[in-house]
Give the backbone structure.
Amino acid sequence: MKQFPILYWPRKTNADPDYQLARKVINTTTGVMPDVVTGDADLMDVLAKNPDASIYYPVFCESTGWWGELLGGNAIVTDKLIISPECQLMVIESEQTASKSARGGKNQLLAAEIYPASGFFKKMNSGIATVADMLATDAGTILALFTGHSQSQFINILESTGNSYLGCIGRY
């Protein structure tokens, strides 16, 4: 089953070279020109209405916490396309669609809610997982995004350090 591409673009599209390049890269990759969604969009809602879609979500070099809106949903990151030094596209699919084409053994994006402690980060950066991004919450915790190979090993380390595990939100 072939997915159809949707490009989510939160910025103005007029005279934006990254926008034009993103459309070209998606067309080259999929063979189809993407539909475009602009402005504020709920990714879970877009995937619910288009369960076979692949959403191409731009992450600009100054972006932090872009993955936060995936938490608690059934969407995962299945690929990453670098289109320029300032922008990469994260390919997001529904969990059901992505599981049909799962690529085992690859790095996964893993999210956890943690209270930061130096010992925790030393363990997590020692081959089990590497910190990729962090986002502070109003509750005083940090939502941290890690890359790693083994979800079960990641969960074991999190639980042994007394931290809360939110689940795997993607793989690429």
